[in-house]
Design a protein that fits this description.
- It is globular and about 45 Å long.
- It has five helices and seven strands, in the order E-E-E-H-H-E-E-H-E-H-E-H.
- Helix 1 packs across helix 2, helix 3 runs parallel beside helix 4 and helix 4 crosses helix 5.
- It has a single domain, classed as Leucine Aminopeptidase, subunit E, domain 1, CATH 3.40.220.10.
- The protein starts with 7 loop residues before the first strand and ends with a helix.
- By secondary structure, the chain is an alpha/beta fold.
- Strands 1-2-7-6-3-5-4 form a seven-stranded mixed sheet, sandwiched between helices.
- Strand 1 and strand 2 form a beta hairpin.
């Protein structure tokens, strides 16, 4: 699924798109992760499929070699997503295991840490999906508000695109910015 050209420029440096995060048109992307390095469902699975096995292998290797906690972040090469302009993938660690629960506090902490790494690596643009909104996870409205608040904090430093194929999440993000 490619980006549905239903994107809205919400504010300077923030764009909201209903579409597929594997077509980000940005230098970097932030996706949800777990401490086991498994990328077998949701957004990580789609990113793994688009970027090929190299991304998954690097994720597992990074977790073995680095001390990363819940709320942390690690990065990998983008594999075949380089063809789409992505230089690095930043994995926001929101769970210990693939089927664990998460909290909005952990999602916010991991997104903050991810933004700090994205900026430290001097990226000019980043794409973010609805982190923590897979079925059975967190409330889409709460996540949309939290992600939008963090994006507002960094909009003067980097171009941000919020892309997800979840209509409800994207509508909630648009509502947040409409009320500002």
């Amino acid at each position: 699924m490619k980006i549905i050209e239903n994107s809205k420029k919400i504010e300077n440096n923030i764009k909201v798109v209903l579409g597929d995060i594997t077509y980000p048109k940005s230098e970097s992307m932030i996706i949800p992760a777990n401490l086991s390095g498994l990328m077998s469902k949701g957004v990580p699975k789609r990113v793994l499929k688009a970027g090929w096995a190299k991304v998954g292998k690097e994720a597992k290797k990074a977790l073995k070699e680095q001390k990363i906690d819940l709320g942390g972040c690690f990065s990998t090469d983008s594999g075949r997503l380089k063809r789409r302009g992505v230089k690095k993938i930043y994995h926001a660690v929101i769970k210990k295991y693939l089927n664990d629960f998460t909290s909005i506090h952990i999602v916010k902490l991991s997104l903050e840490n991810s933004f700090k790494k994205v900026l430290a690596d001097k990226n000019k643009s980043v794409t973010i999906c609805g982190i923590g909104i897979e079925p059975g996870e967190l409330d889409k409205k709460v996540v949309a508000i939290s992600i939008s608040e963090i994006c507002e904090k960094y909009k003067s430093k980097i171009k941000i695109k919020i892309i997800d194929d979840n209509v409800e999440f994207i509508k909630q993000v648009e509502e947040y910015f409409k009320e500002r």
